[in-house]
């Protein structure tokens, strides 16, 4: 190599990796490890082979020994036990010892010997009447260990033999003792003899049977029997298998019983109570099980397992999709609870356990279909309910009926709620605060689960009108609120975290039940009688609900929001508290909204009581942002926000929508040519031709007078405002036939509009678009709508309380029926209603077959609801639906949902109060030589204040094109109102002119009049001329 200039000697480094010596060492270690594992595997295989051989030799030796013992047995006692006498059952005999040793249930010969043995046992026992001496001889105490061993082995052998041969005997499994020649009857009768409660060994037998999973065997026997051709023939006699269960089941849990606790998976509850319709198969067992002490033992056992999160069902009970184990257990438990709860021995602890078990099982079920009325309501309230797509399980109809019939039974709900909510409440002798919280929390959990799974309306009807649930829960919540002790409930309910609000469970039940009550409570009951709560209590309740709702939605919000009314039971198991919180937010908001409706009908509290105390400007800015927490609150509980703040949000959204559309199509304008004497037809034809985007665009109007001449003036917005006011006045005029007036001169769709106009539904669509366009452009129109019709813009359902606004006389008649003390059937009313439109009388059924269905004291509430629904919802459903479709072309539903019906009327028409002249003066600009202190301006404002409200509205229409001012005041008038001097000097020519206006600029051109009287005369003439825009 060449010399590099470096005299030092450096070590050469191989960059190729480790040395070959290190590689060989690593390979040696790997080979050694593989060899060690191979030797270990060979050793394990040899050991396993030895065990298999040992087991096989043992089994073969046992089989040989059994064969030898069987041969000796047959030689001694005969192939059919023909040499057996009663002494063969005594301890000194080898009969039972040999037989129990060699018996194999699969062996047909052994099965015959067993049947013959049991037949002889039955005969000997009936002959002597003493089973104890038959097995123990003269002295049981000295031979008790051997005797106990033999009888428990014999008892299990009988049930095991039936189980092992159940497929062959499937037609003989459900037999009665009277069928004495059938083998299965003989075997089970022998078991019954051995399980006599008077015998000293019965506890040993039951313990042994439970250890060998007798209830699992019984379940499989019953399942096979149901598949057989022969069904259960019950003719008043108890089934042999049922008699065995009647002896075994009550034994467990009794005082002398010392049976060990068995695995919950193989218990009676898990194995037998999960058999579909077990009480129909074993009615006598149902009577025995209905004993309060016995049923309490088993139900408490289930409740304990649930509390400890122990699996209470066997693995194989959920394989049948039609009859899942949880559903069968629920149906059977509810059926027995209906028998147990009414008994005076039923304790509060028992009711708590029943509610706990039922709650746990209800949460596993798919939701049951709603009732007819709920279906009608959901159809009228589109998208109002969240459809649960998670559950795909469909129950057998008969099983579903068993669950719903028992869970919705009025006596069951009445008894359960009375025990839970009354026995634990204040005033009882054994009052315990912790027990009260546990009882109310457990009961509320059950009802919450029932609301989510079963048709809630049927449950709420019972709870609202047949129990004191609302009063009891209110007293509890009121006391907790006053004492600030809400935290006690989470501490006694295991599935509620310690930091969960204590009012969650009471409110999730109280609010929907109270809301349901308010649908039938009339005005006198609510305002005067204080039913169901006094107005003073309602004021406090509003404060409690408002605080709870604000805490849920703003202080401690959920990460995911859902406005649905039903929740997935599958999801509820993953996050039960989160879903309960979400549900409470929904029901509290609904109840507060309903209270606000009652307050709007007749004020009993300040409107500010519904508003949150801490709404800041930051909240208003955030509420405009989609997906924000403030935006969700605005949608969920808009009443928490002051009305003016919501109007600001609404107008901001309108401005953003107009700006967005204007920036996209800045030159797109729709030009309307409108004849004043055909304003409605021209507007309908030209607006109907516009697309949705066209409706959002600007519209410019040219009026044509009666002579066919286009009026002077260029539409800069003012003519369009005038057009909108005139077209709405013409279109909603009752003379046109599309709308009718109530007694209070409020407008609602004419149910008989189709008899006047063939295309009436298209006209309603047009009117909806027309009203939406006015709101979209910020134009107020003087159209007083009925409250029940405004509900349709919010897609709400109207109830009895809304009927006075439509037909006060019909409302009085229905209230008369509601309070009628006599027999209503004597009034000869039927489920039909008479319609009378323009002299044409038609009769319509309220229910299928209603003309033959008489109204009685039992169904009068249903009749009242149906009549109200027909008048308020059904008759105008088509007109309202088409009006809504047109309206929603421009105004989305979520924008309208921010306001209640009364606020929505203000949003459409503005305040009915007189104009605030001072506000207008403060927000007026001046030009052309005028200023705020000019003497003409001072005279002008004096004249304005002297005008009547009607003349003030005429003036406002003259200068702005609309007779109503902005919702939030003249500060928000765009552009600002301006008074401009007309005429450069005070000349006769100038002062003889009339005031003129430019409505597109909100401009008044006012000559410099010399006197107040002259100014008033000229101004009055100008605003009253109604000469179109020619005057300008």
UniProtKB/TrEMBL annotation:
Active-site residues per Swiss-Prot or TrEMBL entry: 1000 (glycyl thioester intermediate)
Enzyme class: transferase
Superkingdom of origin organism: Eukaryota
BP GO terms, sorted: protein polyubiquitination; ubiquitin-dependent protein catabolic process
Pfam families the record matches: HECT
UniProt keywords, alphabetically: Transferase, Ubl conjugation pathway
InterPro entries: E3A/B/C-like (IPR044611), HECT_dom (IPR000569), Hect_E3_ubiquitin_ligase (IPR035983)
Protein name as it appears in the record: HECT-type E3 ubiquitin transferase
Native species: Brassica carinata
């Amino acid at each position: 190599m060449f010399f590099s200039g470096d005299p030092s000697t450096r070590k050469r480094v191989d960059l190729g990796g480790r040395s070959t010596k290190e590689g060989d060492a690593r390979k040696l270690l790997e080979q050694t490890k593989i060899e060690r594992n191979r030797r270990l595997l060979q050793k394990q295989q040899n050991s396993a082979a030895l065990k298999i051989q040992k087991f096989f030799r043992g089994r073969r030796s046992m089989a040989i020994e059994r064969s030898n013992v069987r041969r000796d047995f047959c030689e001694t006692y005969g192939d059919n036990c023909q040499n057996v006498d009663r002494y063969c059952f005594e301890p000194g005999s080898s009969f039972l010892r040999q037989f129990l040793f060699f018996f194999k249930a699969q062996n047909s010969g052994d099965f015959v010997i067993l049947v013959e043995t049991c037949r002889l046992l039955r005969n000997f026992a009936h002959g002597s009447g003493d089973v104890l001496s038959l097995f123990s001889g003269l002295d049981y105490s000295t031979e008790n260990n051997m005797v106990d061993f033999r009888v428990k082995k014999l008892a299990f052998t009988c049930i095991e033999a039936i189980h092992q041969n159940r497929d062959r005997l499937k037609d003989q499994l459900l037999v009665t003792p009277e069928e004495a020649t059938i083998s299965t009857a003989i075997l089970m009768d022998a078991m019954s003899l051995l399980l006599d409660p008077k015998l000293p060994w019965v506890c040993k037998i039951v313990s042994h049977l439970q250890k060998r999973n007798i209830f699992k065997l019984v379940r499989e026997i019953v399942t096979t029997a149901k598949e057989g051709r022969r069904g259960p023939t019950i003719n008043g006699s108890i089934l042999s298998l049922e008699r065995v269960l009647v002896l075994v089941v009550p034994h467990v849990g009794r005082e002398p019983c010392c049976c060990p606790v068995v695995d919950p998976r193989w218990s009676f509850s898990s194995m037998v109570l999960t058999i579909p319709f077990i009480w129909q198969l074993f009615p006598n067992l149902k009577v025995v099980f209905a004993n309060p002490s016995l049923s309490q033992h088993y139900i408490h056992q289930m409740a304990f397992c649930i509390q400890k999160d122990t699996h209470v069902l066997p693995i194989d009970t959920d394989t049948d999709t039609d009859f899942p184990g949880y559903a069968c257990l629920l149906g059977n438990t509810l059926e027995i609870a209906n028998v147990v709860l009414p008994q005076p021995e039923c304790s509060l602890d028992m009711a708590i356990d029943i509610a706990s078990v039922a709650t746990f099982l209800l949460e596993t079920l798919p939701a049951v279909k709603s009732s007819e009325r709920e279906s009608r309501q959901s159809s009228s309230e589109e998208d109002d309910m969240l459809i649960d797509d998670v559950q795909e399980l469909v129950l057998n109809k008969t099983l579903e009926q068993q669950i719903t019939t028992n869970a919705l039974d009025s006596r069951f709900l009445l008894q359960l709620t009375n025990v839970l909510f009354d026995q634990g409440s204040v005033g009882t002798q054994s009052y315990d605060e912790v027990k009260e919280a546990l009882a109310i929390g457990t009961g509320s959990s059950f009802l919450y689960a029932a609301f989510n799974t079963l048709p809630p309306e049927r449950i709420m009807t019972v709870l609202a009108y047949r129990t004191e649930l609302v009063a009891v829960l209110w007293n509890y919540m009121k006391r907790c609120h006053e004492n600030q002790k809400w935290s006690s409930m989470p501490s006694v309910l295991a599935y509620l975290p310690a930091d969960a609000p204590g009012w969650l469970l009471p409110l999730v039940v109280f609010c929907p039940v109270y809301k349901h009550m308010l649908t039938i409570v009339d005005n006198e009951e609510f305002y005067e009688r204080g039913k169901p709560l006094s107005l003073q209590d309602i004021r406090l309740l509003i404060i409690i609900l408002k605080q709870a709702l604000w805490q849920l939605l703003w202080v401690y919000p959920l990460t995911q929001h859902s406005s649905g009314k039903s929740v997935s039971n599958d999801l509820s198991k993953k996050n039960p508290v989160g879903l309960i919180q979400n549900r409470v937010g929904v029901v509290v908001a609904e109840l507060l909204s309903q209270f606000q409706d009652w307050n709007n009908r007749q004020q009993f509290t300040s409107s500010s009581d519904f508003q949150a105390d801490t709404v800041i400007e930051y909240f208003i800015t955030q509420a405009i942002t989609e997906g924000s927490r403030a935006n969700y609150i605005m949608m969920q509980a808009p009443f928490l926000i002051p009305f003016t703040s919501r109007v600001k949000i609404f107008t901001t959204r309108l401005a953003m929508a107009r700006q967005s559309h204007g920036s996209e199509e800045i030159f797109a304008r729709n030009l309307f040519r409108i004849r004043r004497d055909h304003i409605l037809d021209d507007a309908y034809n030209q607006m109907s031709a516009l697309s949705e985007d066209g409706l959002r665009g600007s519209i410019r109007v040219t009026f044509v007078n009666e002579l066919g001449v286009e009026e002077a003036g260029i539409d800069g917005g003012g003519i369009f405002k005038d057009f909108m006011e005139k077209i709405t006045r013409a279109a909603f005029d009752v003379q046109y036939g599309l709308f009718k007036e109530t007694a209070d001169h409020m407008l609602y769709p004419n149910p008989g509009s189709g008899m006047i106009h063939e295309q009436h539904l298209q006209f309603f669509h047009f009117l909806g678009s027309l009203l939406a366009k006015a709101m979209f452009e910020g134009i107020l129109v003087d159209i007083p709508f009925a409250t029940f019709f405004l509900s349709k813009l919010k897609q709400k359902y109207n109830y009895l309380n809304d009927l006075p606004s439509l037909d006060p006389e019909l409302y009085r008649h229905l209230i008369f029926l509601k309070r009628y003390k006599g027999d209503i059937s004597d009034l000869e009313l039927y489920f039909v209603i008479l319609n009378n439109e323009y002299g044409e009388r038609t009769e319509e059924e309220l229910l299928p077959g209603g003309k033959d269905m008489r109204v009685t004291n039992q169904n009068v509430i249903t009749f009242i609801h149906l009549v109200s629904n027909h008048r308020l919802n059904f008759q105008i459903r088509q007109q309202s639906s088409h009006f809504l479709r047109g309206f929603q072309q421009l105004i989305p539903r979520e924008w309208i949902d921010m306001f209640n019906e009364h606020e929505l009327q203000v949003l459409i028409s503005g305040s009915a109060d007189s104009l605030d002249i001072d506000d207008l003066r403060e927000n007026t600009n001046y030009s052309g030589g005028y200023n705020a202190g000019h003497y003409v301006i001072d005279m002008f404002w004096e004249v304005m204040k002297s005008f009547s409200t009607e003349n003030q509205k005429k003036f406002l229409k003259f200068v702005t094109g609309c007779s109503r001012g902005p919702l939030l005041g003249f500060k928000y008038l765009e552009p600002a109102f301006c008074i401009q001097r007309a005429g450069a000097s005070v000349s006769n020519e100038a002062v003889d002119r009339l005031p003129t206006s430019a409505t597109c600029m909100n401009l008044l051109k006012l000559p410099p009049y010399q006197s107040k009287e002259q100014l008033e005369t000229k101004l009055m003439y100008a605003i009253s001329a109604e000469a179109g825009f020619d005057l300008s």
